[in-house]
Amino acid sequence: MMVTCVMDRCRELGFAIEGEVIAARLKVLSDSDRIEGIGNLQSWLHSEVRLKD
Q1: What is the number of domains present in the chain?
Q2: Is the dihedral of CA 51, 10, 27, 34 positive or negative?
């Protein structure tokens, strides 16, 4: 869901960006402990992300 929302917003702003790039960025944010990633972040349908408390 997050990838789709970001892709929609990027389209509104005129940015050409692929879902794979957004997913990769989410993975980097999770690996650097900026967000919390649950499940396999490479599989959009089988994971979730949230801001750290």
Answers
A1: 1
A2: negative
